[in-house]
Amino acid sequence: MRLNHLARHAGLAVGGALALALVAAPAAVAQETATVYVVHGVPDTPVDVYVDGKRAIDDFEPGTSQGPVQLPAGPHKLALFAADAADGSGSPLLSADADLPAGGNVTVVAHLDEGGNPKITPFVNDVSSVPAGQARLVVRHTAAAPAVDVLAGDKPVIEGLSNGQEKALEVPAGSVSAAVAAAGTTDPVIGPADVDLKEGTATFVQAIGKLDGGKLSLVSFTVSDLHSSPSGVPSGAPSGAPADGGAPAWLLVTTLAGLSVVAVSAVRLRSAARR
Amino acid sequence: MTSAPGHRTRSGALVGLLAGLVLVLAPIGVWAATPAPVVAAASPVAPALPSAIPVAAVVPPVGSTAPTAPEPPVRIRLPALGVDAPVAPVGIDDRGRMAVPLDVATVGWYRFGSGPGATAGSAVLSGHVDDREQGYGAFHKLGDLAPGDPVTVDLAGGGVVAYRVEAVSRFPKTDLPVGEVFARDGAPRLTLVTCGGQFDYREHGYTENVVVVARPDVS
């Protein structure tokens, strides 16, 4: 079940239910918008998401994410209502004010704090380019659980991550066996599962749910096209010397042999001269 | 004749000394007299890769694959140079450069980039020029290619992608336009890279890169 979650959500391509209500600004003014992802990490509570009083996501299921959507830069009011609520009036389950920077890239996570109370936490997404051959992995602790370690192939790669915190790694692209364990331990509470980190991408993984009752899972999404070019092409001579230049090995041998004959002869000449 | 033994010793030592000197100097003379072939001779240093696409070469070749999962190339043939070499996928070395196969007879394909036959981007193949221990590499004469020369690449699935050389350029290693060479977008093309110029013994490498750009052959 947990395995399933991890595998299913790694590299998730996100649909666009949010898009209709939120894309108000024309695409041409990209610099005046911000890119937004939303993650629903409060267990057992489908919600409707309202932005500035308008319903943006209907029946947002726990354990899923949506995005990216473009929102006009500037202040916004975000409110989450129970999914069966008639409209955006009354008191929401959760609400927050968000001031989105132009050109910014953020994730808004509705989740439980360490004590199990729902809250909203915004994260800035690092979508800067990734070194050639590598992938970025960003892990966010947004679950009702104490501090955790993230293990890759049984080795801790992130240690002591607490609720509300995130940690980014740049790792060689490829498949890693990843798991989450209580800080200082290696007994997984999520996973292990194989996560395919493609070159030139950033994968954002949110740990959600609560430890009590075993309701921990991961929600992730991936941002592509962050690759860099290799810095060069060293297509010269792999041994460090070319076929046509430099002294070949046989020359070194003859030179050394010749020098030893010279040295021995010189010593003999000297001792002969002394007699 | 009390000095005879000493005399003999001295003569023997003198002969040894001379023989040793000959042994040291003669091979050096032989080696120095051997002419060094010109490596990867190409057109003069070009300031930039050609950006114009020939009118005849804008249609993607048969055997196009999705850009998301390129089909690995397994062989490259350069009939003009008599080259028919195996191709292996490569990534990045420990200095962030494209890894090139240690075997100079094998050509490396940058597996994180575009693939031959893809609908967009530059598929990059690189091979060593030569090596003291292994001799000449598959791309030793790459700089001798001329515009119009055919290039064919065999894919792992059995497909064949045909290209024609558009341009041959050379760049100082430090000025290689890596953004263009490794671009994953733009018109589909094959970029062949090797080394050229002088060998820098302190850097253990050549001073230049020879870059051949080929476009899909639609004829």
Describe this structure as you would to a colleague.
- The complex is a heterodimer of chains A (275) and B (219).
- Helices cover 14% and strands 45% of the residues of chain A.
- With 275 residues, chain A is mainly beta.
- Chain A has one domain (2-223).
- In chain A, the strands form four sheets. A four-stranded mixed β-sheet of chain A has the order 4-1-7-8, with no helix packed on it. Chain A has a four-stranded antiparallel β-sheet with strand order 3-2-5-6. A four-stranded mixed β-sheet of chain A has the order 12-9-15-16.
- Chain B has two domains: 1-34; 55-216, Sortase (Sortase, Chain: A, Beta Barrel), CATH 2.40.260.
- Chain B contains two helices and ten strands, in the order αββββββββαββ.
- Chain B has helices at 4-33, 178-181, and strands at residues 73-78, 83-90, 107-110, 122-126, 130-131, 135-136, 150-155, 160-172, 189-200, 205-216.
- In chain B, the strands form two sheets. Chain B has an eight-stranded mixed β-barrel. Chain B has a two-stranded antiparallel ribbon with strand order 5-6.
- Mean pLDDT of chain B is 81; it is low at 34-67.
- Chains A and B meet through α3 of A and α1, β5, β6, α2 and β9 of B.
Q: Number of folding domains of chain A?
A: 1
CATH architecture of the largest domain in chain B: Beta Barrel
N-end to C-end Cα span of chain B = 93 Å
The topology string of helices and strands of chain B comes to HEEEEEEEEHEE
Kindly report the CATH topology of the largest domain in chain B: Sortase, Chain: A
Mean pLDDT of chain A comes to 84
Order the strands across the largest sheet of chain B as they lie in space.
1-2-3-4-9-10-8-7
Our measurement of the CA-to-CA distance between the termini of chain A, rounded to an integer number of angstroms, reads: 96 Å
Task: Supply the number of helical segments of chain A.
Answer: 3
Query: What is the radius of gyration of chain B computed over CA atoms, rounded to a whole number of angstroms?
Result: 24 Å
For the largest sheet of chain A, list the strands in their spatial order: 4-1-7-8
Low-confidence stretches of chain B: 34-67
